[in-house]
Design brief:
Length: 225
Amino acid sequence: IIDTGRSHQRRITVIEGMRSTEIIRQIRDNPHFDGDITIKVPEGSILPETYFFTHGTSRNAFLQRMQEKREISLLEVWIDRAEGLPFDSPEEALILASVIELETARSADRREVAGVFVNRLKKGMRLQSDPTVLYGVAGADGRVIRKSDLKRETRWNTYVISGLPATPICNPSLESIEAALNPANTKNLYFVSDGEGGLRFARTLDAHNRNVRLYRKSQRAAGGN
């Protein structure tokens, strides 16, 4: 969250993909707000964007305004969703959007990632999304995923569970919500990093494994520079 502003009006920008605990902490520690935070702020309940406020604004009231913005935006996009999606509620779409958000920072890839996940859900394949692995694991924030983590049984680890995680794993952008509800029309079932900020997509496991080898080769080359 970035906090700037002049004497009368201030602003807070919620970064895409932030967790609710991070947002709560920043608002709690900001001296320009008033009062304690006593309301619940579930993961995914805040829409990332810039919000304006004045000195002395109630922390609870400000958070409620942010939550109302997300609720309205989600329902507006839900109305225009694609047909045949493998989930039945806006809340499930929000969960998928949160996974998409943490899988790619590139706008151009979000609908394609959504298409992969939708295809996997329709086929009964596990999502096997790395960002879901460490969510809910105490003390695991920011560390590298270990092979043993892939087998850790949590309500969010999509290497272990079928379907969607139990809850959102971050606060996704409107763009990721739109991608979840209007995914790319694709036959791809896999993707992996290309080592340069983008993703390589594949329809088959063999093609995906080739892409994985290319990624590992690029990582070795980068390490040798």
